Amino acid sequence: MNIPLVPPEDPSTVDIGQLNNSLALLLRLAQVRMYDQFFVAFSGTDVRPGEMTVLWTIDLNPGIKQGVLGRVLSIKPAHATKLIQRLVDAGFIERRVPPEDRRSVRLSLTAEGRGHLERHRETFQNLYAAADIGLTEAEHRALLKLLRKLAFDGAQACP
Amino acid sequence: MNIPLVPPEDPSTVDIGQLNNSLALLLRLAQVRMYDQFFVAFSGTDVRPGEMTVLWTIDLNPGIKQGVLGRVLSIKPAHATKLIQRLVDAGFIERRVPPEDRRSVRLSLTAEGRGHLERHRETFQNLYAAADIGLTEAEHRALLKLLRKLAFDGAQACP
DNA sequence: TATTGTTATACTCTATAACTATA
DNA sequence: TATAGTTATAGAGTATAACAATA
Q1: Distance separating alpha carbons of residues B95 and B105, to the nearest angstrom
Q2: Are A60 and B16 spatial neighbours (Cβ–Cβ below 8 Å)?
Q3: Tell me: the pLDDT tens digits for B32-57?
Q4: What confidence tier does B155 reach under pLDDT thresholds 50, 70, 90?
Q5: A12–B144: do the CB atoms touch at under 8 Å?
Q6: Among positive and negative, which fits the CA dihedral A123, B76, B149, A19?
Q7: Are A64 and B7 in contact, with CB atoms under 8 Å apart?
């Protein structure tokens, strides 16, 4: 409750009080930094933030239905349609309408899609590597574990 | 590396492999859930995600320059202009062009702005409260501490 | 010439609702 | 009637670039 008589001129001296304990702000700031790092790491490519996780998940679950994929990654149907369509156009994903339920769409990677994933897999996995952000390996693991609880609400298997 | 012979029909049985250790995905999913909780908590109001932190910070640092505020909260100038303008229009913020540098804008809360902040402060601070997300108090504190390192890159004072 | 803030434009992700086709 | 996906539209947040006023 120390209101400064003279307003701070330097961002590092600004008091944000209990905002230091706000998950809402801290998650947003961490996310913004992640976003920045993403575009540095993937500059020159036309890989977008949401695409790697989609390709990765389809690779591990070939034939997954678009709706199931969307529920796993929290991608809403309307957005999934556009995101998938772009990856189909790029030649990375194949769509198949299965005979047992012709409303649905099953997804799998093309050979080109697998190649694309392999080329960028390491870059993606190393995003926000511990060394870059001043965390020890133990802190990094702890952070992942806690974020999984937030992200999956305890419903997801987290080995 | 256990590619299922039959694709999973249930999101909870989908294997996401090393995506479980991806800060990029986990931060996004946690952020999406935060977003959801924000709109539940603030439904019926017209408070937007970015506004509370802005009002909060101006309250603690009256007379702060718009650029300094933006650098603290990672809000780019173009977005800051629109966000602040909306809060001025709502009657929550006063803008003042100081004589010592007439390029800049200094911000402070109106009485109405302070009232608005007080009315919503607790709701905002309780967003993603520990109990709601299956974290113990200790885990919650640990998560905040780790996120501060990501969010502020070690540059910010974190008591 | 550099800095502060503004305007204009575009892109990503998200949200909602109305729609088609299938079940 | 319900479900899977599509289309259309809108909003919040971010990004960039060009600009005006001031330093």
Answers
A1: 6
A2: yes
A3: 999 888 888 888 888 998 999 999 99
A4: very low
A5: no
A6: negative
A7: yes
| Tokens coding A115 | 């190649």
How far apart are alpha carbons A18 and A80 in whole angstroms? 37
Check if residue B66 sits with its Cβ under 7 angstroms from strand C.
Answer: yes
Residue B51 (CA) to nucleotide D19 (C1'), in angstroms, measures: 27
pLDDT score recorded for residue B1: 60
DSSP letter for A19, please.
G
pLDDT of B5 > 70? The answer is: no
* The predicted structure's pLDDT at residue B91: 96
Nucleotide nearest to B86 (CA to C1'): D12
* pTM for this predicted structure: 0.91
Question: CA–CA separation, A51 vs A42, rounded Å?
Answer: 12
E strand segments, A24-129: 64-65, 93-96, 106-109
Q: At B14, list the tokens.
A: 């989908």
Q: How far apart are CA A77 and CA A83, in angstroms?
A: 10
Instruction: Please tell me the distance from the alpha carbon of residue A133 to that of residue B149, in angstroms, as a whole number.
Output: 7
Tens of pLDDT, residue by residue over A33-86, are: 988 888 888 888 888 888 999 999 999 999 999 999 999 999 999 999 999 999
Helix (H) or strand (E) holding B38: helix B23-41
Identify any residues that bridge with B107 across adjacent strands, giving them in sequence order: B64, B95
Taking CB atoms and an 8 Å cutoff, what residues of chain A touch B149? Answer: 133-135, 139
Between β-strands A106-109 and B93-96, what pairing exists: parallel, antiparallel or unpaired? unpaired
Residue B40's alpha-carbon distances to B10, B35, B44, in angstroms, are: 26, 9, 9
With CB atoms and an 8 Å threshold, state whether A24 touches B157.
no
